[in-house]
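Hi W.,

Here's what went into the run:
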Amino acid sequence: MKTIIFQTASNYLLPLLLLFSVFILLRGHYLPGGGFVGGLIASIAFVIHSFANGLEKTRSIIKFHPGFLMPVGLVFAIGAGAAPWFVGQPFMTGLWFEDPIPVIGMVGSALFFDTGVFLVVIGVSLTIIFTISETL
Amino acid sequence: MSNPYIVLPIIFQLFLAILLMFCWTQKNLQKLVSTVGSLIAVAIAVIMFAQVWKSGTLVTQAGNWGAPFGITFVADTFSVLMVLLTTLSGLAVSVFSVGAVRNARVKFGYFPILHFLIMGLCGAFLAGDIFNLYVWFEIIIISSFVLITIGGEKAQLEGSIKYVTMNLLASVVFLTAIAVLYGLTGSLNMADLSLKVAEIENRGLVNVTAILFLVGFGIKSAVFPLYFWLPASYHTPPPAISAIFGGLLTKVGIYALLRVFTLIFIPDAFMITLISIMAALTILSGGIGAMIQNNIRKIFSYLIICHIGFMLAGLGMYTELAILGTVFYLVHDIIVKTNLFMVSGLIFKIKGTYSLRLLGGFYKDYPKLSLLMAIPLFSLVGIPPLSGFWAKFYLIRGGLEVDNLVLVGFIILGSFLTLFIIARFWSEAFWKTGEELPKKLKVKYYHELKPLKQKAMVVSILFLAFISLGIGLGAEYVIQVASRVAEELMNPQSYIEAVLGKL
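Here's what came out:
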């Protein structure tokens, strides 16, 4: 799909969609959203870019293999789960910072878990889609 | 008693899997990490076993939400015993894989998935919540789907279709049973269910739910008449993978059956008769199936079914003594079956075939290895003082105690069938004069491997053979453990109090 309109649009859509995915990730704790949906939106951003500009171009802006995001995301998740152990609480207890952080709001271990999910979803879906479109 | 660290065996396996994913491309580093990590996992399991042995059932509530609502993890003696056995055979398989798994499979993430599988197994044994048990079962089967298809050989894919279909069906039945149970009681916590199910007046509905569970777990543990997927699929993946499948996956089903039928559904006369009949027919069909097979891995697959029948028979007798026998058999069987599939893998690497007709002369060419392989083989038969003997001894005593002579007869028949099969196996593969087999190009033979890889395969078999010997010679200690497990299972009061607090 090498049309000039789609190519130009995709260049603007990529940062917009990535920003939107982070927004969805952050509002996820009490409102609809969260790591899974956010991750899907972020991977859609890259998929649209790869449809418009070809797979090689998208690869060159990501720089590393998307599969690498899977273990990184899992580290976030396992870290958020194990953090309560250090204060003598059971596994996966929600820990919260006392003061809200500007713009983001209240931050707790749940956000780190969600970030982990976010990264794993991007890693998995991009690996699958890139592998499939490579062999097409 | 509350202890937040009892989920450590699960989390440690997850940690290992993540670590292995980071070294995706370095095959040798993966092998090192997997072996060392499995050693540490055994150490963790041993410490946990000692803790539970000393201070009784340990409980943690993940997320710190109180018992009937949150996610409970319970480590009673049975759970930690199973976790310990899982990590032991995990260690053996991980070392065996260093030698036996091809680099092509390692490249597709064999080691991370292996540790995800062991994580699922540990989780299933520690779960104190029936829905969570389902989730761990899903983790187990999804990892096993990857393991059984990894490498993508034609035979593997054919076997995996049967495997996947039946296991998904079992999951659906299991999930339906949970839904019905939740509809009846409004709870998913197993300790809470134990109290609530006892109060339901409509016993017919409870029995229907219990049968749904029996079917779901029955498919997973390959019980008559739902066993046919097992011999159709277990001989297809590489031997290291069949070893972990044969050793542990069917036993999770037995674990779940024991747990559910001692804690939640106390079987009435009808259920006991049903389980006894299923056990007898499982022994018979597994034993007879193994007699006519020629592929050695198919023989072992049928023997798994036969011996699942023994364990189910213990549940069918439903006395403390019989449950003791079942638990002892479980301990013995996990170690021996894992070892036997590794033995079949080593035989294949040396001879290049699984066919009993073509094999032969193994004892003449490799006397020391043959004697080593004799230990798991004859433990399986239960020749005293090897490990199988004591387990069957207690099962038969349990049967005599409740005058269930038919079941005792079937256990003895099953033992004789096993003896016949193993004797035939021994004389065909080891004593018969063997001919020189034509070299296969696709097989990488034992003597072509690097010395480190050769040693890894032998050492892992040696390790499990020693444990088998230890179980047989130190039976006194295993009986102590098994009798405590049986006592805890038959008197679930302490389990319930540990989870829900003093009532």
